[in-house]
Design a protein that fits this description.
There is one protein chain. The protein is α+β, with helices and mostly antiparallel strands and about 1000 residues long. Helix content is about 45%, strand content about 25%. The protein is built from 33 helices and 32 strands. The strands form seven sheets. It has a five-stranded antiparallel β-sheet, sandwiched between helices. Helix 18 runs antiparallel to helix 19 and helix 21 packs antiparallel against helix 22. The chain is flat and about 150 Å long. About 0% of the residues have low confidence.
Length: about 1000
């Protein structure tokens, strides 16, 4: 029976024989085999220490060895290892077996696998250690109280927050938390009520009393302690939020102050009476800084005379007794030095008054201790007066009060300047009207759209109209069709930059159809309602223009005469001298004289070639009757003579002539080629220069290339290159310069030949701009370039996308600020419709973040709207020619900036995603101007719940006040102002 019981035992049993060497195992039951994984035949005859593997350094083994030596019982837990190496914890009980005489026969060991129990015990111990560490080292206070207010537990941080030396001292002294620690004991009862109802609360903010009696703000997260379902106590954490509360209070006060200053600014800006302005700013400033009285003084007469312009807080009679109104240096500091004077107690200042009694003031004088003086200085640095404030108690005016008074003084200075300007305008209005109507110049006034508001008598009569016939009409209607775009551009530039002076020349069409050349000067003034009016003064320059044309004809004749004189006299004389030098050299027969003659001969040869080049340029006008091929060949021959050491090749394809240019155009093209040849000869160091004129792809192409040293086009843009570009534009073509260091230079002029094929090859332009008049002006300029065609115009994203769906676009000129969204979004649509298309941003406000987004979307260039229209046309041509408008370094920097902004927006979206629907409702209510009580009423929640929601919102958004949370939500679209 015993054998059966041992064999059936669920515990591993082994028997050893201590009377044999090394106390071998003599029996193991099946449970031992199952527990260890060893079969009986594998362990019989072995000492059981093999179960310990290499893990022999166990404290419990000493207990086992002692028990075996002493032949007694013991119970230990050992780390043992199964046959497959798996660790298990073995609770081993050893009992000695003796015979009737007490002789030790065997040891019986009973094994139990306690691995799971051991792990549970270790985890529990570790958790207890972690809890103890958190409890002791937490920066938050941790507490536990009974329901009646007895403090049961507190950690060191809790004691520190409340000003106690140790948790033990706090637990001993605080017997009623509500009465001893809460500023308002009712708040303790409120907390208990919430926990009774909801079981937990977070962000419960209260003001509490420290051991020394001082008050601090804390935020509490608490849970109810329950026993058998009944609440018996409270446990939780507290955080000292005093600094945050002070910051919120400072922000609230600052916000209120800014709102008040804004209100005062609006009040002042709406008043144009100087006396009322002085009184208003004195009244408001006295209230805002808490002064007992305030005064606005003016300087009149001499240096020591001040007049009272406004007084607040006391009567004029009482102020007249104020000794400070006399000439003293503290007044001079404000008036003469334009410095703020602030004193906690003016009576202690050595410069106070000029009498010894009563701290420098006579008996009966208005008592003043705190003193503040702020000068009122205009934009022209003129001292308009000073604001002076007093209070009978010392130390009333600090930095905040000084800042408020300074801000109001600045607002007052602007308002008084405006009032004086208004008076001046009103006084001069009649004089201006007389001057406007009777002035022999032509005067027009226009609104921001270019509509004629008024025209003086002389201006109407010069054009054959009556004033009423012009008023209300768009002024562009009376300009020559070719000049309208230029006039519109200049007017828009003036309107965008009030205060600047616009100057241009244009042709006006009289009522009878005759043309009148005028020079116009325009300036913009703001109206009282905030609008803009352009005043345009016109001078008739028709006679000057006719004289200029006559002068040009005379100049051309003079150029021809000069060329003849140079050729017939100076050049012939130099050639004759050169021949004489050659004869002298032949007679000299060598030596130093021959070398000198060689040097003189070379100089004269250079002079001859220079004069011939000048003669060629001067005679281009008179060679108009010669063919282009002949003139070009003459040009190349002249350059060959000037640089015989270089090879200058000429290639002119068949069929090029006759050129699609009139004689003036041919002369201009030759001047472009001459400029390019001169640059190549003088600066490139080339051995070979090639001149090519051909037709290619329905375009006329004229090119000068060399194998010289080359240069970086982005770093070099000389006057010669600019002149060539201007001539190219005037011909209706474009000029490109391609060069790389060490690889030569190519200057290429291209212009369309016209006809059906050329029209099909024209660059198709889409204009996206919500300002219709500006859009039309740009379109008219672009359409004048034969290789450009405006295929669509749009005033919004929706309209632009409709154009893109209807047809191909090569270049889109896009304004970023569109009425239905961000214009940069269109760049992606453009590239999707035509991967080879390019986008040029033309915007009035070049905000860096918006530009970065546009470049990130694929914009190839950015221009401000104030640039000339020729620069816009040139930019489009350069894009079509494959040139780069923006340096690579700038593109990389903008892309890096866009990435940073995108990361900030992503973090903001992630923060907003954490908000619950209820928290979003709280934010929206805040955006609608509701305070905490009103939010509670709207959402049907308690004031405490509202505060808890707000605390969680602040934590999730990473902000510190309601105002910051509102700004964050509005910026990223989580709430909207309704």
């Amino acid at each position: 029976m015993l054998a059966l019981a041992v064999s059936a035992s669920p515990h591993g049993i082994l028997i050893t024989d201590p009377n044999r060497p090394d106390d071998p195992i003599v029996y193991v039951n099946p449970a031992f085999e199952k527990l260890t994984g060893y079969a009986a035949e594998e362990v019989l005859g072995r000492n059981c220490r093999f179960l310990q593997g290499d893990d022999r350094n166990q404290a419990a083994l000493s207990e086992v060895r002692a028990a075996l030596r002493e032949g007694r019982e013991c119970r230990v837990v050992l780390r043992n290892y199964k046959k497959d190496g798996t660790l298990f914890y073995n609770e081993l009980s050893i009992s000695p077996a003796r015979d009737g005489s007490g002789r030790l026969l065997n040891f019986v060991g009973v094994q139990e696998d306690v691995t799971e129990r051991k792990r549970t015990e270790d985890a529990l111990r570790e958790a207890e250690e972690k809890y103890h560490s958190i409890f002791e080292n937490s920066i938050e206070g941790i507490f536990q109280t009974s329901l009646d207010g007895r403090l049961l537990a507190a950690n060191p941080a809790m004691a520190r927050i409340f000003g106690y030396d140790s948790p033990e001292e706090m637990i001993e002294e605080v017997v009623d938390v509500g009465e001893q620690l809460y500023e308002d004991p009712a708040r303790r009862r409120e907390l208990a009520g919430i926990l009774e109802e909801r079981d937990a609360v977070s962000g419960f903010e209260i003001r509490v009393r420290r051991k020394d009696g001082s008050l601090v703000w804390i935020s509490t997260n608490a849970r109810a302690l329950r026993k058998d379902g009944r609440m018996v106590g409270i446990q939780g954490t507290v955080e000292d939020i005093s600094e945050r509360k002070r910051a919120e209070e400072a922000l609230r006060e600052g916000t209120e102050t800014l709102e008040k200053l804004n209100h005062v600014g609006q009040l002042l800006s709406s008043e144009l009476d100087g006396q009322k302005l002085a009184q208003a700013v004195t009244d408001e400033a006295t209230k805002l800084i808490g002064a007992s009285f305030g005064a606005f003084l003016n300087t009149v007469g001499g240096d020591d005379s001040y007049t009272l312009r406004a007084i607040s807080g006391l009567s004029h009679e009482a102020f007249s007794q104020f000794h400070m109104a006399r000439k003293i240096r503290v007044f001079d500091t404000a008036f003469k030095n334009r410095e703020v004077v602030r004193s906690d107690d003016i009576r202690e200042e050595p410069d106070y008054g000029d009498l010894p009694a009563y701290g420098g003031a006579p008996e009966g004088t208005l008592p003043v201790a705190s003193y503040l003086a702020v000068p009122v200085v205009s934009r022209s640095e003129e001292v308009l007066g000073g604001l002076f404030f007093g209070h009978p108690e010392p130390g009333v005016f600090g930095e905040r009060e000084e800042g408020i008074a300074t801000a109001l003084a600045a607002q007052a200075a602007v308002a008084l300047d405006n009032a004086r300007l208004f008076e001046s305008v009103r006084e001069s209005e009649e004089r201006y009207r007389v001057l406007y109507e009777d002035n022999p110049s032509m005067y027009f006034t226009l609104d921001s759209e270019g509509t004629v508001l008024s025209v003086n008598r002389f201006g109407a009569e010069n054009l054959g109209y009556k004033p009423d016939e012009l008023i209300g009409r768009p002024v562009l209607e009376i300009f020559h069709e070719d000049d309208k775009a230029n006039v519109r551009r200049h007017l828009d530039a003036c309107l965008r930059n009030p205060g600047s002076l616009g100057l241009w020349e244009a042709r006006k069409i009289s009522k009878d159809g005759s043309i009148l050349w005028v020079e116009e000067r325009a300036s913009v003034v703001r109206t009282a309602g905030g609008g803009q009016i352009a005043l345009v003064v016109c001078e008739d320059i028709s006679e000057r223009k006719r004289a200029g044309e006559a002068l040009r004809e005379v100049r051309d004749a003079e150029r021809a005469r000069i060329a003849r004189d140079i050729h017939d006299e100076a050049l012939q004389d130099i050639v004759h001298a050169l021949q004489q030098i050659q004869i002298g050299k032949a007679l000299a027969g060598g030596g130093r004289n021959a070398a000198d003659l060689d040097e003189a001969s070379a100089a004269l040869k250079r002079s001859v070639e220079g004069l011939r080049s000048a003669i060629y340029d001067l005679r281009l006008e008179e060679h108009r009757n010669r063919g282009f091929s002949e003139m070009l060949a003459s040009l190349v021959r002249m350059n060959r003579r000037r640089s015989p050491e270089r090879e200058i090749k000429l290639s002119m394809a068949e069929g090029v002539t006759p050129l699609p240019l009139d004689k003036d155009g041919q002369v201009e093209l030759l001047r472009i080629l001459q400029e390019a040849l001169t640059n190549a000869r003088c600066h490139s160091g080339a051995q070979t220069i090639s001149v090519t004129v051909e037709t290619s792809g329905n375009k006329l192409r004229a090119e000068v290339s060399d194998d010289g040293r080359g240069f970086d086009p982005l770093e070099t843009s000389g006057m010669g290159t600019r002149n060539m570009r201007e001539r190219a534009r005037a011909l209706g073509g474009s000029l490109s310069v391609k060069s790389r260091r060490g690889e030569g230079t190519t200057v290429c002029f291209e212009m369309p030949l016209g006809g059906k094929d050329a029209e099909e090859d024209a660059a198709r332009i889409l204009l996206v701009e919500d300002h219709a008049s500006f859009r039309q002006a740009v379109a008219s300029v672009l359409d004048r370039a034969p290789e450009l065609e405006v295929v669509g115009q749009a005033g919004s994203l929706r309209e632009a996308r409709e154009v893109l769906r209807k047809g191909d676009v090569d270049v889109a000129i896009v304004d970023l600020g569109l009425p239905d969204g961000y214009g940069g979004e269109l760049v992606k649509d453009l590239r999707g419709a035509n991967p080879e298309a390019q986008a040029l941003v033309l915007s009035a406000t070049l905000d860096r973040s918006e530009i970065a987004r546009a470049v990130e979307y694929g914009a190839a260039g950015v221009l401000h709207k104030t640039v000339g229209m020729d620069e816009v046309v040139d930019a489009v041509r350069r894009l079509r020619a494959g040139e780069t408008l923006m340096p690579l370094s700038e593109v990389v920097e903008l892309l890096r900036f866009a990435g940073t902004r995108r990361k900030e927006e992503q973090e903001a979206r992630e923060a907003l995603a954490q908000l619950t629907p209820r928290e979003r409702e709280v934010l929206q209510a805040l955006a609608e101007g509701l305070d905490g009580r009103e939010i509670s009423e709207r959402l049907n929640i308690s004031a405490t719940t509202e505060r808890n929601h707000m605390a969680r919102i602040l934590a999730k958004l990473g902000v510190h006040s309601r105002l910051q949370a509102l700004v964050f939500a509005l910026r990223y679209g989580a709430a909207e102002i309704r």
